[in-house]
Write a structure and sequence with these properties.
mainly beta, 199 residues
């Protein structure tokens, strides 16, 4: 603080342990139904991934949702599929006190100003949730390019859930190599405020 100007700065460092994550991204989706049950998908790039251990039918008993959910919870709790990382919150506040008594002293908690007085102007900024989460890519995650003509989708059947869908994608689309891990950026947000004390 100097001549009625007060600046306060703070931050929080957070330890983050990712549990599960996924993303799905499509660029230039082009499709056409040529007949009732026949479809074209062309010039389409798709990127999708989910973290290893996220619920799929792989390794789960068929027709037994209770056992499948139990298996998933056991895998999710072992924390092997997300790399521990850190996140950060930062903030700063500026206050202008034009009527500050020069003989008045502040303690380390910045509470030295008289309770009968109030700052005239304040402004602040904070940046919350700075960071990213890194996950081990699931076995059936793929990036792929679609250029299929005359695909008969009328008899499509996915008895093993997500695993069946992944198998269909691998057999129908051109898959692209991808890294062993993928990153999800935290939903970082910036907050601003301005406060002018009138009365």
């Amino acid at each position: 603080s100097n001549e009625g100007h007060l600046v306060k700065v703070g931050g929080t460092l957070k330890l983050l342990q990712p549990v599960a994550g996924a993303y799905f991204y499509v660029k230039s989706l082009n499709y056409r139904w040529t007949e009732y049950e026949q479809q074209d998908i062309y010039n389409t790039n798709v990127k999708y991934a989910y973290s290893d251990g996220l619920y799929t039918s792989q390794g789960n008993p068929k027709n037994d949702a209770r056992a499948s959910i139990a298996n998933y919870l056991n895998r999710a709790r072992d924390f092997k599929n997300g790399v521990p990382t850190v996140g950060l919150d930062l903030g700063a506040v500026y206050e202008y006190w034009p009527e500050k008594d020069k003989n008045e002293q502040m303690d380390c908690h910045c509470e030295g100003f008289s309770t009968k007085k109030h700052y005239k102007f304040a402004a602040g900024i904070s940046v919350m949730d700075i960071g990213a989460l890194r996950f081990k890519r699931g076995e059936y995650s793929n990036d792929f390019y679609a250029d299929i003509r005359g695909w008969n989708v009328g008899g499509a059947n996915y008895p093993d859930g997500l695993q069946s869908l992944d198998d269909t994608i691998r057999s129908r689309f051109v898959t692209k190599p991808s890294s062993k891990y993928f990153t999800v950026i935290l939903p970082t947000r910036i907050n601003l405020f301005v406060d002018y004390y009138i009365v």
